[in-house]
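Write out structure tokens for C40 family peptidase.
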Amino acid sequence: MQMGIRLVGLASFIFLAACASNAPVNEPMTAPRATASAAFNPVADDVLFRAIGLVGTPYVWGGNTPSSGFDCSGLINFVYNDVAGIRLPRTTQQMLQMQGQRVARNSLRSGDILFFSTAGHGRVSHAGIYVGDGRFVHAPSSGGTVRLDSVDSKYWNKAYLQAKRVLNSETLVVNP
């Protein structure tokens, strides 16, 4: 019963968050990538809620708290440490090299970390937290704020490198 209530709440929250964002009008809607039962992980759901709750926090290069602002890796580090007690590496390059299951793009689940090459050189330069339904939370750039975006938008689709699952259904993967 509690799992059912959580899933209904999660679906409602994602729906409302999607309605509140500024997604391009001509972008096709993406179907959810996993069934609710296959994707259910209470800790991953807590990561998702915490990340979405930080939308609107200012971007600050090197920032790693809500009061100081966030850069992309600072946001991810803060959310995982705050919710799950997991201390992740500080940079996107180090996060990409850490232990964790590499995830196919069509198997993404809430809480997975997405990696991007925004400079076009094929090396990781940006990351965000997947929240479901083709969307992710990230701290994109100077002068901006933490926001939700579609991984399938033209820009992010082109920059996408890979995803990593730090949380799985049975255990937390801990970086040595």
